[in-house]
Structures are given as C-alpha cells and as structure tokens.
Amino acid sequence: MKIINYISSIAMPLIILIIIMYGVAEKNKTFDTFLKGAKEGIEIVINLFPTLLGIFLAVGVLRSSGIIELIVQVIEPILNTIKIPAQIMPLALLRPISGSASMAVATDIMTQYGVDSNIGLIASVIMGSTETTLYTIAIYTSSVGIKKTRCVIIAALVADIIGMLTSVVICNILS
Amino acid sequence: MLNIIWPIFIIISFIYAIFSGNVEKLNNSIFESAKNAVELTIIFFGTVCLWNGIMQIAKETTLMEKITKILQPVMKILFPNIEKNDEANKEMSMNIVANILGLGNAATPLGLKAMKTLQKQNEKKDTLTDTMMMFIIINTASIQLIPTTVIAIRSSLGAQEPTKIIVPVWIATICAAIAGIITAKIIIKKVKK
After folding, report:
1. Within 13 Å and on the Cβ side, how many CA atoms surround A73?
2. Whether the Cβ atoms of residue A145 and residue A126 lie closer than 8 Å to each other
3. What is d(CA A18, CA A53) in angstroms, rounded to the nearest whole number?
4. Mutate which of A14, A47, A56 to disrupt the B interface (most B C-beta within 10 Å)?
5. Among B residues 146-185, those touching chain A with beta carbons less than 8 Å apart
6. What residues does each domain of chain B span?
7. Interchain CB distance below 8 Å, A137 and B136
8. Which residues contact A62 (CB under 8 A, 6 or more apart)?
9. Where do the domains of chain A lie?
10. What is the mean pLDDT of the segment spanning B94-123?
11. pLDDT tens for residues A39-86?
12. Residues 73-132 of A with CB under 8 A from B
C-alpha cells in the first residue's frame, strides 16, 4: 500500500518536471507559454461558473429536502449486501449524464461524509476514472449526423459500471 | 438532458420539503449552494489555469508527437481497419494523447475532427463504423494521467493527501477501459452494420 501512495504523490510533480524540462530542451519560452495557457484557463472557468451555480442549487435543495436520505434508506439494504455504500448512488446515477452535476454531487458527498472517509475516497476515484458517457456519445455521433449507433451506449455503460465497481473495491481494500 | 432533470429535481425537492417539514433547511440550502458554487469556482481558477499553463508547454513542444508514436502498437490493436499513415489515425492518436494529458479542451475538437475524417470513409453514412465505435469507447473511458479536477476539490476540502487517489484512479480507469473495449469488440462481431 505504501508504494501505491508513493507513486500517487510522485506522479504529478514528475509530469510537470518532465514537461518543463522538455520545454527548456527545445528552447521554448516556457514562462510565456505557461502564461498563455493559464490565460486560456480563465475562460474555461468563467464559462463553467453558471452551470455549477445551477447544478449546486438543484443538488443543494435535493439534499436539504430529505429526498436523498429517503432514497438512500430504501436502497441501502440491497447495496450493503455487496458492500457498496448507498450514499454514492446519486453520484453513480448522475455521472454518465452530466459532468458538472456529478462534480457538484461528489463535492457534496466529500463535504458531508469527510474527504478522507471511505465514501469520500470512492466518490473521488469514481469522478477521476469515469467520463460523461452519454454526453460524449451524443456530441461525437451527432457531429457527423450518425443515427444508428449500434448499441455503443451499452459498451460505454458497461465500462462505467465496471469503473465504478472497481473504484469501490479498491477503496475498500486501501482503507 | 439537463433541461428535463434540473426542473424535476427542484420541483420534487420543494414539494417534498413542504410535506416533510424541511422548509427551513431548504431555505438555507438555496443561499448555501450559491456560496458553494462560488467557492468551487475560485478553487478551479487556480488549478485549471495552472494545469492549462503547464500543458500549453507540452502542446508547443514535440512531446505530444513523441507520445503519439509510442501509442502506435496500441492503436493497431484497437483500430485494425485503419492504416498507419491514415489521416484518421493521426487525429485519433492526437485526441487520445490529449485525453491522457488531461487537455479536455484540446481533445474534443481533435476528436470531432477525427470523426469527420472517419465519416468520409464510411459507406453507410447514418451508421457507426467499427472504428468509430471503438474510438467513442476510448473517449468515454476517461484515460487520464492526472485527475486534476478531483485533486483540486480534495485539496480544497482539506484532504490529508489529495493526490492519494491517483493510482486507484489508474486501476479503475484501466479496468473500465478494458471492459468497454471487450464489450465493443463483441458488439462489432455480433451486431450487424
């Protein structure tokens, strides 16, 4: 387990180091380039804000109204038998549909149950290892006018489910 | 999609809150959610800009081309119908490398360009080809070296080791990708074009 934690902590600095050394070796004006990229980032975040605001509102009222608790109570006995915490179900259901919605839900889960708790870790790993499947399929097929998608959605959802189950298993082993 | 889900969430919550006596909580959560959205955005300002800056350097050097070359044997397995010198092969590899490096904004335009090239070679214009299907699966599998967004959220919430999740994410992603690829291969064999 120690080695996993070590690789996890060395990965990000190592990648940044390699990229910057590469830039220097190729005589790139690395700082100017960095500024250019960072500036583009501003626009990305500004465009993201209205979506986040809307989604946080929906997720916030869902939780405070008590509905999520109700759903969790209903499905908990079923999921407990296979050791999946029911609290992550809202995230699992939203993840393939909307990136910002699942991000809001994941943040909510981490705040509520603790970022270093098992549930918090599972939510993090699910967010990192899965993609907004339905959205991706929609833009890729519609951009070229394809209507018959030959069940690609099934393969994509199988990948998502396996990714989520693996996330649960790994986090259960690690903690 | 969200045009349907969003209002449903809000309407159900408001009605349920009235009947379950949680109106006070609901009231607080409205302002709380606005505050949370601002806080998360501020965190994103730092991380997204930082990562975008670093990755701009990767984009402007030959690093991306290098990784694209390393990727070729894998491309051959995934897309047996595509020739190495094909324009589509280049565009798809670039898209996959951009995804691996976490350049979401660069990856999508590259991916759509690849789809366009693949569509030119497609005989049945309204049906997904084998190559397209596999390409979409790879794109939905989220193969990413560093899940920066999640790490940023974790760090802002005071996690002891925000990057602790990197290796677990790799394992989960690889399992998901393999499952997706196998299922897609089965579909390609069984489901007629």
Report:
1. 5
2. no
3. 36
4. A56
5. 146-147, 149-151, 153-154, 157-161, 163-169, 171-173, 175-180, 183-184
6. 21-190
7. yes
8. A68, A90, B9, B12, B13
9. 30-174
10. 88
11. 988 988 898 889 889 988 998 898 899 888 888 888 888 888 888 898
12. 97-98, 101, 103-104, 106-107, 110-111, 115-116, 120-121, 124-131
Contact indicator for B154, B162 with CB cutoff of 8 Å: yes
Average of per-residue pLDDT values in chain A: 90
Q: The complex's ipTM? A: 0.87
What pLDDT shows up at residue A8? 87
**pLDDT (0 to 100) of residue A26:** 94
Interface test with B, best of A42, A59, A140 (most B CBs within 10 A): A140
Residue A37 and residue A16: Cα distance in Å, rounded?
A: 14
Q: How far is Cα A127 from Cα A110, in angstroms, rounded to an integer?
A: 12
With CA atoms as reference, report the closest residue to A53 among B88, B2, B74, B162. B2
**Which residues sit opposite A88 in a β-bridge?**
none
pLDDT single digits (tens) B35-62: 989 988 898 888 889 988 998 898 888 8
Q: Looking up tokens 């049945």, which residue turns up?
A: B124
Residue A137 has pLDDT above 80, yes or no: yes
Could you tell me the pLDDT band of residue B193, with boundaries at 50, 70 and 90? low
Euclidean distance between CA atoms B118 and B133, whole angstroms:
11
Distance CA B126, CA A130 (A): 28
Nearest CB to A158; choose among B59, B146, B180 = B180
Spatial CB neighbours of B164, under 8 Å, sequence gap ≥ 6: A5, A8, A9, A121
Instruction: Dig out the tokens for B88 from the structure.
Output: 């589509």
A37 Cα to chain B: minimum distance (Å): 4
